[in-house]
């Protein structure tokens, strides 16, 4: 299954350490969604923004294993269409935290996400959005 990750799960090495073997990682973005960071990250619908991330191929068992962890067990799958760096439209599953559960602030998470987004060479304007969560 194709899965679109936009938070720390974009880090292939982190997934491998969690016993998951992600295949075929590709950068892309999701139109009409905005990144929001509370205790964790989530995407919310927004007509004027786009959220960047990484599409990876995982098995259903691997996805279930990742999202059974207590800190992400409230995330809900949603079918989305991602636009890849090569302008390919890819149908994927994206896990989002319901807005009413997106609370708090986590500067450490935001800093880690910012470092990862820099490493992935996401656009500077997107890095600024992440940076506002700890600056």
- Name the average pLDDT: 94
Shape: globular
Strand-residue proportion: 35-45%
What topology, given as strand order, has the largest sheet? 1-3-2-4-5
Distance between the termini: 36 Å
Q: Could you say what the CATH topology is called?
A: Hypothetical upf0131 protein ytfp
| Whole-number total of structural domains | 1
Determine and state the CATH class. Answer: Alpha Beta
Largest sheet descriptor:
5 strands, mixed, barrel
**Helical residues, percent:** 25-40%
Class per helix and strand makeup: alpha+beta
Radius of gyration over alpha carbons? 14 Å
* CATH architectural group: Roll
Question: Can you put this structure into words, describing what you see?
Answer:
It is a single chain. With 135 residues, the chain is an alpha+beta fold. It has a single domain (2-106), classed as Gamma-glutamyl cyclotransferase-like (Hypothetical upf0131 protein ytfp), CATH 3.10.490. The chain is 25% helix and 39% strand. It has a five-stranded mixed β-barrel. The longest helix is centred in the last third of the chain and has 13 residues, at 107-119.
What's a quick, concise take on this entry?
This protein has 4 helices and 5 strands.
Task: Label this structure with key terms.
single chain; 135 residues; Hypothetical upf0131 protein ytfp; five-stranded mixed β-barrel; globular
List the helices and strands and how they pair.
Elements: E1 2-5, H1 12-17, E2 23-37, E3 41-57, H2 60-66, E4 76-84, E5 89-96, H3 107-119, H4 124-131
Parallel strand pairs: 1-5
Antiparallel strand pairs: 1-3, 2-3, 2-4, 4-5
């Amino acid at each position: 299954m194709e899965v679109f990750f936009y938070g720390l799960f974009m880090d292939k090495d982190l997934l491998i350490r969690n016993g998951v073997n992600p295949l075929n990682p590709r950068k892309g973005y999701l139109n009409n969604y905005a990144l929001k960071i509370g205790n964790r990250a989530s995407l919310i619908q927004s007509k004027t923004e786009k959220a960047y991330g990484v599409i990876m191929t995982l098995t259903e068992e691997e996805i279930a294993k990742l999202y059974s962890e207590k800190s992400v067990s409230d995330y809900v799958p949603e079918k989305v269409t991602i636009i890849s760096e090569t302008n390919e439209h890819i149908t994927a599953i994206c896990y989002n935290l319901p807005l009413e559960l997106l609370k708090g602030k986590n500067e450490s998470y935001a800093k880690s996400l910012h470092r990862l987004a820099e490493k992935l060479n996401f656009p500077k304007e997107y890095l600024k959005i992440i940076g506002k969560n700890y600056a």
